[in-house]
Structures are given as structure tokens and as C-alpha cells.
TrEMBL record:
This is Protein MEMO1. Belongs to the MEMO1 family. Coiled coil: none annotated. InterPro entries: MEMO1_fam (IPR002737). It comes from Knipowitschia caucasica. It comes from the Eukaryota. Gene3D superfamilies: LigB-like. Pfam families: Memo.
Length: 146
């Protein structure tokens, strides 16, 4: 595992969304099949970050606008529900695990952002406790399939 880097587990899988890759894939495909791609390709989307039971269908309308053939990089911003932050914070993880597949964080971009002095680094515990970004990871993984 050491050659894979620092991994952030999908802590909310099994509670906020399915921990089964096959079941999650089927759910995402179902929701996406009912959404329309009317603004594709989107340069930015805004999507909810609640449990998929509550917002899975709604989020599909945002993620349906993503075109993986033209999207080269994805930035996910989310609020902090558990820790007060005075500015944006970067995850200590190099890899975000999802039930579908793992997503690698671009460490070169992280280094560039860090050099600006405008970003903090959150702790692993803060990252694991927070759900706002994690809820976007399975949809991001699915939307970026070619």
C-alpha cells in the first residue's frame, strides 16, 4: 500500500451511499439516465452533498453536464460542517477511495496551490469526518468515465 500514497477511505459509503461498487454504479446510471444534458460541456457545476437517498437524482442533473472528453481537471469545493476554517483547506490525501474506483489527487496542483499561501492543510481526521467532498467523489468517478 505504501506505493499508493496516503489514501482517504470512503468513510460514508454504506451509510450515505452504497458501499457496493456494482449497486452504486447501477444507482448512478439510473439517475443519470433520467437527467438531461442541456448545458454540456459544463465548465462548472453546483450539486448537493447530502445522502444519495435524498439528493442522488438531483445531483445527476449537474453531473450529466460533465463531458469527460473535454474535462482535464476537476476541482471539488465543499463546506466544513465540523471544523471552523478561515480559508480553503487541502486534504492530506493523495488518493480518494470510492466504491467505483480510486481517484488520484494531482499533487503538482496541490503544491502550486500551497505556494500561494492562501490554503491550509486539513488533518486526516478532519477530512474523514467531513462528508461534503466525499459525496461528490462517486459521481465524479462515474461522470469521468469515457
Amino acid at each position: 500500500m505504501s506505493n499508493r500514497g496516503n489514501c482517504r477511505d470512503a468513510k460514508h459509503a454504506g451509510a450515505w451511499y452504497s458501499a457496493s461498487g456494482a449497486q452504486l454504479n447501477a444507482q448512478l446510471e439510473g439517475w443519470l439516465s433520467h437527467a438531461h444534458s442541456s448545458f454540456r460541456p459544463a465548465r462548472a457545476i453546483i450539486a448537493p452533498h447530502a445522502g444519495y437517498t435524498y439528493c442522488g437524482a438531483c445531483a445527476a442533473h449537474a453531473y450529466k453536464q460533465v463531458d469527460p472528453t473535454v474535462t482535464r481537471r476537476v476541482f471539488i469545493l465543499g463546506p466544513s460542517h465540523h471544523v471552523a476554517l478561515s480559508r480553503c483547506a487541502l486534504s492530506p490525501a493523495e488518493i480518494y477511495k470510492t466504491p467505483l474506483y480510486d481517484l488520484r489527487i494531482d499533487q503538482k496542483v496541490y503544491a502550486e496551490l500551497g505556494k500561494t499561501g492562501m490554503f491550509d492543510r486539513m488533518t486526516q481526521k478532519t477530512d474523514l469526518d467531513e462528508h461534503s467532498i466525499e459525496m461528490h467523489l462517486p459521481y465524479t468517478a462515474k461522470a469521468m468515465e469515457r
